[in-house]
Amino acid sequence: MGIQKENLTLKIKKEWCKGCGICVAFCPKNVLALKDEKIEIVDPEKCIKCGLCELRCPDYAIFLGGNEDEEK
Q1: Closest by Cα among 52, 45, 47, 21 to 34
Q2: What is the residue range of 31's domain?
Q3: Based on the structure, what is the number of domains in the chain?
Q4: Is the dihedral of CA 45, 40, 61, 58 positive or negative?
Q5: pLDDT tens column, 34-52
Q6: Is residue 72's pLDDT more than 50?
Q7: What is the pLDDT of residue 66?
Q8: Exposed e or buried b for every residue in 14-45, given b needs 16+ CB within 10 A?
């Protein structure tokens, strides 16, 4: 049994983020923003979990993960 979409949350590895802003540009709900040249989740309630940010991030710095995923 796989992880249900509604159980996923956005996770960020700020140390991997180079501040390119590609994820911000592709987010259809304006959930993301650049702050101090790093990605930040500014409105998590608006996230529809479409995965475009994860798909487009060239540095794998943002992803949809379940509760068992912990930032390392």
Answers
A1: 21
A2: 7-63
A3: 1
A4: positive
A5: 999 999 999 999 999 999 9
A6: no
A7: 80
A8: eeebeebebbbebbeeebbeeeeeebebeeee
Query: Which CATH number does the domain housing residue 19 bear?
Result: 3.30.70.20
Is 68 part of a structural domain of the chain? Answer: no
**Quick check: is 46 in a domain?**
yes
**pLDDT tens track for 1-36:** 555 677 899 999 999 999 999 999 999 999 999 999
Asked whether residue 15 is assigned to any structural domain, the reply reads yes
Assess if residue 71 is contained within a domain.
no
